[in-house]
Amino acid sequence: MTAEPVHYWPVPPQDGYTVDDLLTLPDLPPHTELIDGSLVFVSPQRAFPSTVIDLLASGLRRTVPPEFKVRREMVVVIDNRNGPEPDVSVLRAAAVRSGNQTWYQSRDVLLAVEVVSPSSESRDRDTKPHKYAAAGIPHFWRVEMAGELPVVHVFELDKEARAYVPTGIYRDALKLTVPFDIDIDLTEIDQF
Asked: Are 76 and 107 in contact (CB under 8 A)?
């Protein structure tokens, strides 16, 4: 008879976790996020989000100006109780300090991208965009699955309202001039 593995789950502090906890707690599962002081454990990656993240990250890397860098699945520190992990981020190159870096400040992020999956729908459609906008991140993309292809919903920050306003929906090709010239063929997704 084989003993079942024992899992020890961290007990949350009375006032919730902080970004320092997120960045230093040992043995957290990969891609754990901090939302409103609560640790959010991410479900195993599905094929659609994984391939879309690859497509967008490589497409952005082809077009990003040298003063910016593209990163995937890195913590963005918004405040002491919020450290979400966008699927893709474009950030100021000056914010990249080393290959061991595990997080970036929200003030350095130009674009945050979330690819919606069943386990993250509410966070990707509501919670995270609201937090990104409140933190002043100028651009946000939400990517949904339409059949086998991605549909990209593009938003720009209304600085006065600290809320995103939609600027377009892109199905076959993502051609933009803001925040820089972008041309990504969305039909080039690696079919599952």
From this structure: no
